[in-house]
Design brief:
This protein is α/β, with parallel strands linked by helices. Helix content is about 40%, strand content about 20%. About 5% of the residues have low confidence.
């Protein structure tokens, strides 16, 4: 399954620097001018998972394949983007296509980096982006209401229910609040799914701080954390430039030495990727054999056939059973054969809820 996260923020906050750090397949041009990224750059980032390496050490496969997130570097939004300012319509359309938003906010002073909004003010910066997305959603919801009203007046019961939910969304947006903070049940969420509201998307905030504040944060990052404490979101404090330098190091020894110098246990990027992954309710199962050890992404709560479909749709259509070994059992007993002998390999059917870390083999017939 494909997962796409979009990096957004005002111009010159460190978006493209962050993209350069996380991307395995492309490098954005990080330049100190307003619209350096006109078309969104797209790259792939591996989801760090130490379990994959541990499993591979036991199996000794020909290749190791981590699961990945697609990262889109979307050009800097500006005030008035919802009305088309700064190519706003194009950029907002790019946001509509992503599953989650990584919102980069400048939390550092540097007179050499241009800033159009005056003094550093992360909460105000956040609100500028929020407002533009809310205004665009308000435009979307008003158009949908106009269309649905006709059907509701004609007596369509489903349209009446949908109209009520849309009106609820409209009222919420007019209060300057995002759809993701509106308490909607699963049935109501289904009714607005095709609206693709921008403010309904999950958000991870990146507080891009100076080097001295990368471990402790600073007054700016703390103000941001306070401002979003009631949101279903996380703030990752990091120095994007340091992360970009780490990502450019191919030699693990060089990387370890560099991180030791900066007193880092892990790249902050790993925390960012994990946060994005978990925010969307995603988990990982593994397949392991002599050809490859591979990580696969699934949504928490999925059953075995759905997870099989992540590999290939035929696996889901023709699902018969799944052979399952808990990750801890596999590591403790060191092989599939040993797990089978010890009775730790289970046969599960269509109703099995797959657990994070399961090592699986699917049986199917098409």
């Amino acid at each position: 399954m494909g997962l796409k996260a979009g990096i957004v923020g005002l111009p010159n906050v460190g978006k493209s620097t962050l993209f350069n750090a996380v991307s395995n397949s492309a490098k954005a041009q990080a330049s100190n001018y307003r619209f350096c990224t006109i078309e969104p750059n797209v790259g792939l980032v591996d989801v760090p998972d130490q379990r994959l390496q541990v499993l591979a050490e036991l199996v000794q496969p020909q290749r190791i394949v981590p699961t990945q997130i697609e990262i889109v570097d979307i050009a800097g939004l500006v005030r008035g983007a919802s009305k088309g300012e700064g190519l706003g319509n194009k950029f907002l359309a790019n946001i509509r296509e992503v599953d989650a938003i990584i919102h980069v906010i400048r939390c550092f002073e540097d007179e050499n980096v241009l800033r159009e909004e005056g003094a550093i003010h992360p909460v105000s910066d956040k609100e500028i982006i929020d407002t533009e997305l809310q205004l665009k959603d308000l435009e979307t919801v008003e158009k949908k209401i106009q269309r649905i009203e006709k059907q509701a007046k004609a007596g369509d019961a489903k349209a009446k229910t949908e109209l009520e939910v849309l009106q609820k969304c409209k009222d919420h947006l007019e209060q300057g609040k995002s759809i993701r903070s509106l308490d909607l049940n699963s049935a109501e969420l289904d009714l607005i799914r095709d609206a693709f509201f921008l403010t309904q998307k999950k958000v991870v905030y990146v507080a891009n701080v100076d080097e001295a504040s990368m471990h402790t944060g600073n007054q700016y990052s703390k103000a941001l954390q306070e401002a979003v404490k009631d949101e279903d979101a996380e703030v990752i404090v990091m120095n994007n430039s340091i992360e970009a330098q780490i990502s450019e190091m191919d030699d693990p020894a060089d990387r370890a030495l560099f991180m030791e110098e900066y007193k880092m246990k892990e790249p902050a990027l790993d925390r960012l990727i994990h946060s994005t992954y978990q925010l969307l309710g995603l988990q990982t199962y593994f397949t392991a054999g002599p050809q490859e050890v591979r990580a696969w992404t699934f949504h928490k709560g999925w059953k075995a056939p759905q997870c099989a479909g992540v590999i290939h749709t035929d696996f889901e259509k023709g699902f018969i059973k799944a052979e399952v070994i808990a990750f801890d059992d596999y590591i403790a007993l060191k092989s599939e054969a040993a797990c089978r002998e010890a009775g730790k390999l289970r046969i599960e059917g269509k109703e099995y809820l797959v657990k994070d870390g399961d090592v699986m083999h699917f049986r199917f017939n098409v």
